[in-house]
Specification:
It is found in: Periplasm. This protein is of the alpha/beta class. It contains 19 helices and twelve strands. The strands form four sheets. Strands 2-1-3-12-6 form a five-stranded mixed beta sheet. It has a three-stranded antiparallel beta sheet with strand order 10-7-11. Strands 4-5 form a two-stranded antiparallel ribbon. It is globular, with a radius of gyration of 24 Å.
Length: about 425
Amino acid sequence: MNLLNSLRALLLCLFGACTAAAAAESQLLRFATWDGSESLLIQQRIAAAFEARHPGVKVQMEAYGGGYNQKLSAAFGAKNPPDVMYMWNFPQYQRVLEPLDDYLARDARIDRSDFVPGLFRFATVGDADGKTQRIYGVPAGFTAQVIYYNKDMFDHAGLAYPQEGWSWDDLRRMAIQLRKPATKAFGFGLDVNPDPYDFQSYLWSAGGRMLGPDGVSVQGHLNGAPSKAMFAMLLALLQQDVAATLGLGDGRNQRQMFTSDKVAMLLDGAAFRVELAQDGKRYGVVGLPSFQGRPAQSVVSVSALAMARESKQKALAWDFIQFFSSAEAVRLRSNDLPVLLSVAAQQGLQDDPLVRPFYAMVESMKETPAHLLNPRWMRAQDVVRDAIQEVFLSKQGDSGAILDRAAIKAERKLR
C-alpha cells in the first residue's frame, strides 16, 4: 500500500500537483488548549514527539487562551470542534464528548491504577437516566490546595515552621506574631475575590459546603452553621488586621507580596510553586490546617484530555490522548505535578517536602465539588462569589444575613 501511495504521489507531482498530493496523504489532528507561555511550549513538544511517531500526521495546536470556554462552545455550536481538547467541566460538555470507557477497556497502554487516586472521578459523569456512569476524559494535570509559608518571615520572627496536623488556631497564633504594622507586613493573605470552586476547601474543612448532596439545595449549606463558623473565623483575621486582603486589583499581587516579605502565609495551588521557583524565594508548603477538630479537606483541580463526539478520526484522536498520558509525555510536563504515580516515584516527588503535601491533600477530598453535583451550578456560582466578596469587604461582625440572602438567590438559579 505504501508503494502504491508513493507511485500515486509521484504521478501527481509529474502533473504539478505535489502540494495537493501531500495534503491528501497527511492527517490533521486539531488539539485545543487553554494554556499559554511555557505550558503551551511543552504541549507543542509533546505534539512534535507524537508527530515523529506518526509520519504523515500534523497536530494543529489551537491555543484559545482566556476565552477558552466561549471559543470551544462556539466551535461545537458550528459543528466544527477540535478533535481533542483540554477539559475540566465535563457535566457542561458531556453531550458533545465521546465516552472513553470502551477505549480504556481495550487499550492496555493506559493503566488506570497508575494514576493518582481520585482523578478519574472528575471526568466521570452520569447519563441522563442517572444509572450509568461514563468516563469522558483522561487526566493530564492536577493540583490541590496547600498553605505556602515564607521562610524568611518565619526565621526573622523566630517562629518554627508550620507542621502537618496543625490547626487554624495555630495559623492564627502564628499570623499574629508575624504581623508587622510598621512595615505593613501581614501574617496571612486572604483572597477576598476567590474562584468559588477553590473556596470550597475552606467550607469543607469546617464541615460545610456550598451545595447539598441532592444537587439543588443551597440553603442550609452555604448558610449552614459550619459554613458560617468558617466565614466568621476568616473575617476575624481581617478585623484583627493580621490578614491582608488579596484579589482586589489594588496592587496587592499575592506573588509580589509574598516574595517581598509582606505576606507570611497564603493558600494556593501548584502553579504558585513554579512562580516562586523563578523568583528564587525561600518557601515551604504544608497541608491545610484543621478547623475545630475536623480533618482538613482540599478541592482538587483536574485537567483532562477529551475527544469530540463529532471527530472524524477518533482512532487517531485516541492515540494522541494515550500518548499525552504516557510516562514519556508526563515527564515532559515539568511544570505540572505528574498524574502518574510511577513518574512521581521515579522523580522522588512524593518524598519532596515542597511537593508531597499536594499529593496528601488530594487524598483528603471526601466531598464532591458543586459542579459535579449539578451541571447548572455555573448559573449559581456568581451569586456565591458576590456573597463572599460582600462578607469580607464589608467586614461586618455578623455575615449570616449576607449568606442567607445568597443561599436563597443561588438556589433559585438551580430550580
